[in-house]
């Protein structure tokens, strides 16, 4: 009876939560105490209201896009759980008190959806849940969602010099969002995506239950590996299959300006990059260097080769002789050193730099993405160079596919961009002054470039990558997520897998508690099929 009475009182006062920060913290703490027998009232350690002295610093600690720092969308509470039972309690209490939930692992969501919401909400920040347990003997690891890629890579390297993992390049990216969106990096042509190498997971569902692969079932396990895990629950940890890496790998970065023939090299690269030996990954980074009259477009050919210089140079002479790669352009290193190399660290820095959660660079930005199925003609490349003259800190990054990516079915996991895609494009614009005028100017520029690229990229749908979140593609309504309306953006990210994701959503979270501007909506009964 005491439990029922307390919960009844919580329901009665819940309407006042948005207006009283201290009261809301007390109410939420009381609710968590009731919901979890393992939870003791440790609000000073785990629950922060806007009255808390640490509230602002915790809120901003992993907001990786300063563009959102001045947002009026602030959480009513920030919960930094120390154990899984506290997350279970936070989910149940958020439901009971009518609050939305945002889950943050690394804070790299491009549109800030892990820490922004238009209705009263709670942030569950997983920063304290970031253990990595590597089993080198069976070549697996369990990693909690609050860990970063850097922490994962470092932990693997400390256990073995011959094991690695195929995930992203930025070491401060959180595991939770990265894995659940797919996750690609320098090893994808050899080993596929991070999500392709997930073999188990632990998740808290909308009812507060902790489920693993066996108890959640194969449909839900399929959905969280590339379908955006925040739509289905809170993923606590992932079991991953590690991959073999050679003792010596080779990196190179060759810079070319337009005057040095960069345009023809980019054009040629499009025809061959997806057909290189799977040990060879060469991406392209296009940016402005210099300023004013000295500003010019520079193209960097940035590569990882799984082997030594003695194999790489003859392979390049055969596969891409136009680049003119020489042994002096190359650096031999270990796999963990290559992680540091691609992250922008200096050659003499120790691997411990990967443990820092502070990014090397932090600025306001907007990004968009595309997939390319036919080489972009030289006249269109010229159009890109011309548009680069209209802004300063802009980037186009082209990541080649092929290899292992061609061998995995587009239906194997929700991430559908497989065979037939030559490469992915990421467009980025950055700026320093966080004002409305500056923001609008730079966002206008990237939208203009995106419109210009329309004839040269994938169509029906025009593909996009969920981890490069882009609300320009469309967003859900605040209180009524429509499957048909969401299909406008959902099919761009997931193609034919979007309907199956919505079918899974309708089974595991039919009332759409776990939702945001681009979460998977439940599939209406009219569209449902008997089996997923």
UniProtKB/TrEMBL annotation:
Signal sequence segment: 1-22
The entry's keywords: Disulfide bond, FAD, Flavoprotein, Glycoprotein, Oxidoreductase, Signal
One biological process term in Gene Ontology: cannabinoid biosynthetic process
A family per Pfam: FAD_binding_4
Provenance organism: Prunus dulcis (Almond)
Domain FAD-binding PCMH-type: 71-245
PROSITE patterns: FAD_PCMH, OX2_COVAL_FAD
UniProt cross-references to InterPro entries, sorted A to Z: BBE, FAD-bd_PCMH, FAD-bd_PCMH-like_sf, FAD-bd_PCMH_sub1, FAD-bd_PCMH_sub2, Oxid_FAD_bind_N, Oxy_OxRdtase_FAD_BS
Cofactors that this protein relies on: FAD
Superkingdom in the source lineage: Eukaryota
Organism lineage: Eukaryota, Viridiplantae, Streptophyta, Embryophyta, Tracheophyta
Similarity field: Belongs to the oxygen-dependent FAD-linked oxidoreductase family.
Family matches, as SUPFAM superfamilies: FAD-binding/transporter-associated domain-like
Protein name as catalogued: FAD-binding PCMH-type domain-containing protein
GO terms, molecular function: FAD binding; oxidoreductase activity
């Amino acid at each position: 009876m005491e439990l029922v009475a307390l919960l009844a009182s919580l329901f009665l006062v819940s309407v006042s939560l948005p207006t009283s920060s201290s009261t809301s913290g007390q109410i939420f703490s009381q609710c968590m105490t009731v919901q979890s027998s393992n939870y003791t009232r440790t609000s000073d350690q785990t629950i922060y209201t806007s009255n808390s002295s640490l509230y602002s610093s915790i809120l901003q600690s992993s907001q990786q896009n300063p563009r959102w720092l001045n947002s009026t969308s602030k959480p009513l509470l920030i919960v930094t759980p120390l154990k899984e039972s506290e997350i279970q309690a936070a989910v149940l209490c958020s439901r009971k008190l009518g609050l939305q939930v945002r889950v943050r692992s690394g804070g790299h969501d491009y549109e800030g959806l892990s820490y922004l919401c238009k209705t009263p909400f709670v942030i569950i920040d997983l920063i304290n849940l970031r253990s990595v347990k590597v089993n080198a003997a069976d070549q697996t690891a369990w990693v909690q969602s609050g860990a970063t890629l850097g922490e994962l890579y470092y932990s693997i390297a400390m256990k073995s010099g011959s094991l690695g993992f195929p995930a992203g390049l930025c070491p401060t990216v959180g595991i939770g969002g990265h894995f659940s969106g797919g996750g690609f990096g320098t090893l994808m042509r050899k080993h596929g995506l991070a999500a392709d190498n997930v073999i188990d997971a632990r998740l808290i569902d909308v009812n507060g239950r902790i489920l693993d692969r066996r108890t959640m079932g194969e449909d839900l396990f399929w959905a969280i590996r590339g379908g955006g895990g925040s739509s289905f629950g809170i993923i606590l940890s992932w079991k991953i299959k590690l991959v073999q890496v050679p003792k010596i790998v080779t990196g190179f970065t060759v810079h070319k300006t337009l005057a040095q023939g960069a345009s023809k090299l980019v054009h040629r690269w499009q025809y061959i990059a997806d057909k290189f030996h799977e040990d060879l990954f060469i991406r392209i980074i296009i940016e402005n260097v210099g300023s004013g009259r000295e500003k010019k477009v520079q193209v960097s050919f940035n590569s990882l080769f799984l082997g030594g210089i003695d194999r790489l140079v003859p392979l390049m002479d055969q596969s891409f002789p136009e680049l003119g790669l020489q042994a002096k352009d190359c650096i031999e290193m270990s796999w963990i050193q290559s992680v540091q190399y691609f992250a922008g660290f200096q050659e003499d820095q120790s691997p411990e730099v990967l443990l820092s959660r502070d990014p090397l660079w932090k600025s306001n930005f907007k990004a968009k993405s595309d997939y390319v199925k036919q080489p972009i003609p030289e006249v269109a490349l010229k159009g890109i160079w011309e548009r680069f003259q209209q802004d300063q800190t802009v980037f186009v990054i082209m990541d080649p596919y092929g290899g292992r990516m061609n061998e995995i079915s587009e239906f194997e996991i929700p991430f559908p961009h497989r065979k037939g895609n030559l490469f992915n494009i990421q467009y980025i614009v950055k700026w320093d002054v966080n004002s409305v005028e500056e923001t609008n100017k730079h966002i206008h520029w990237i939208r203009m470039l995106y419109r210009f690229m329309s004839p040269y990229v994938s169509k029906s749908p025009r593909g996009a990558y969920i981890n490069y979140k882009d609300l320009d593609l469309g967003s859900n309504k605040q209180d009524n997520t429509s499957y048909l309306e969401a299909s406008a953006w959902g099919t761009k990210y997931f193609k034919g897998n979007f309907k199956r994701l919505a079918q899974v959503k309708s089974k595991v979270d039919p009332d759409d508690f776990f939702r945001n501007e681009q979460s998977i909506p439940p599939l209406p009964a009219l569209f449902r099929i008997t089996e997923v």
